[in-house]
């Protein structure tokens, strides 16, 4: 098998619901990062073998293979194909894995992986609004559970004895870290500004400065009257896109590129679909064993903050250093554009690794239906 690297990674700012990116069609938003990827690397887009694009709600503006239409919107040659992947919130992380597998096997040499979601235009749950995606046999198997992620997040909090204070402290820290990173310019080199009819969007919009346990205490539980999960300790509904260039070290050198990270291993696993969001725990163990890397060797973790209870349960089970988990903030502060989030998190993580000389980074993402991806990368320079 061939060695595989990520040679470049870019993302849009993550826009808040009905914010600065809400007027942009998802194909056009994807085109922004595709064009920026080509510009920053200096590659001729015609050398790209495929574009693998994550998107969750594939209806309306995001229907009809958004990956292909993103390629066309970017003005890339018509000869370049595109396909769209849906593994719920891990869609673009899975897109990266598929891209790596294509290059690693020798079937392709240069693949772009990424994803998009404009939740302002295609609301959460839109894809199942006109039908029932689970089916009677699934409901029968799981005692007619509604497969509501908020209820799953509540169950996780209860199982791991996570109080509302625990969750709100973690959420306030997410905003604090994200604000500090933004102020330090940590995101500037990875973000591509987006020009809209209303102006230019150049920074993540979801950060709420001054968020505290006291301010979060004013919010009502969202899923259970006596619950601990609310809007402030849950991921934000967001708009955004990201793209990564995947190739071999040899091809990167031929193209005059310096790889950012080497892909070490990827893993995907299924877990209890009622708890639903605990998959990152076994996925982390699985990917570390595949890579033969110890948890203590990893210098940064990106554990998607779908709800605060998810990374807190992950921390409790793995014993990872909390200081290394989402050091630049996470989805609670920076947003969660569903199908784009896997690529956004990877972009954020590998730039952080490069600028801080961190050898290993691990990303993991909980997903609807009880699956999870985990990916381990190593600094290439």
TrEMBL record:
Residues 258-378 form the Thiolase C-terminal domain. InterPro entries: Thiolase, Thiolase-like, Thiolase_C, Thiolase_CS, Thiolase_N. PROSITE patterns: THIOLASE_2 (PS00737). Residues 4-248 form the Thiolase N-terminal domain. The active site is at residues 89, 336, 366. GO terms for molecular function: acyltransferase activity, transferring groups other than amino-acyl groups. It comes from the Bacteria. Keywords: Acyltransferase, Transferase. Belongs to the thiolase-like superfamily. Thiolase family. This is Acetyl-CoA acyltransferase. It comes from Nocardia globerula. The lineage of its organism: Bacteria, Bacillati, Actinomycetota, Actinomycetes, Mycobacteriales.
């Amino acid at each position: 098998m061939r060695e595989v690297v990520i040679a470049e990674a870019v993302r849009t700012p993550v826009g808040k619901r009905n914010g600065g990116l809400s007027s942009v069609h998802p194909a056009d938003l994807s085109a922004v990062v595709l064009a920026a990827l080509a510009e920053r690397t200096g590659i001729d887009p015609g050398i790209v073998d495929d574009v693998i694009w994550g998107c969750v709600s594939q209806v309306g503006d995001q229907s009809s293979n958004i990956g292909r239409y993103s390629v066309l919107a970017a003005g890339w040659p018509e000869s370049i194909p595109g396909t769209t992947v849906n593994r719920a919130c891990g869609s673009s992380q899975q897109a990266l894995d598929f891209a790596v597998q294509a290059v690693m096997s020798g079937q392709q040499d240069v693949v772009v992986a990424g994803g998009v979601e404009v939740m302002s235009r295609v609301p959460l749950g839109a894809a199942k609004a006109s039908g029932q995606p689970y089916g009677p046999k699934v409901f029968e198997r799981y005692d007619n559970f509604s497969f509501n992620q908020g209820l799953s997040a509540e169950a996780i909090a209860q199982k791991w004895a996570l109080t509302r204070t625990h969750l709100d402290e973690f959420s306030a820290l997410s905003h604090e870290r994200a604000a500090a990173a933004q102020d330090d310019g940590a995101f500037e080199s990875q973000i591509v500004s987006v020009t809209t009819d209303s102006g230019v969007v150049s920074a993540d919009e979801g950060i709420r400065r001054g968020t505290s346990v006291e301010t979060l205490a004013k919010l009502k539980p969202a899923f259970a009257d006596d619950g601990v999960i609310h809007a402030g300790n849950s991921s934000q509904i967001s708009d955004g896109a990201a793209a990564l260039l995947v190739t071999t070290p040899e091809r990167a050198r031929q193209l005059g590129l310096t790889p950012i990270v080497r892909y070490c291993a990827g893993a995907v696993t299924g877990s209890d679909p009622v708890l639903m969001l605990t998959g990152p725990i076994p996925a982390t163990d699985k990917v570390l064993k595949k890579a033969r890397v110890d948890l203590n060797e990893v210098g940064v973790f990106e554990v998607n903050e779908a709800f605060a209870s998810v990374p807190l349960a992950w921390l409790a089970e793995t014993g990872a250093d909390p200081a290394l988990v989402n050091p630049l903030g996470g989805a609670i502060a920076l947003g969660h554009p569903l199908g784009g989030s896997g690529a956004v998190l990877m972009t954020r993580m590998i730039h952080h690794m490069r600028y801080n000389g961190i050898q290993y980074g691990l990303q993991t993402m909980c997903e609807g239906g009880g699956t999870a991806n985990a990916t381990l990368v190593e600094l290439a320079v």
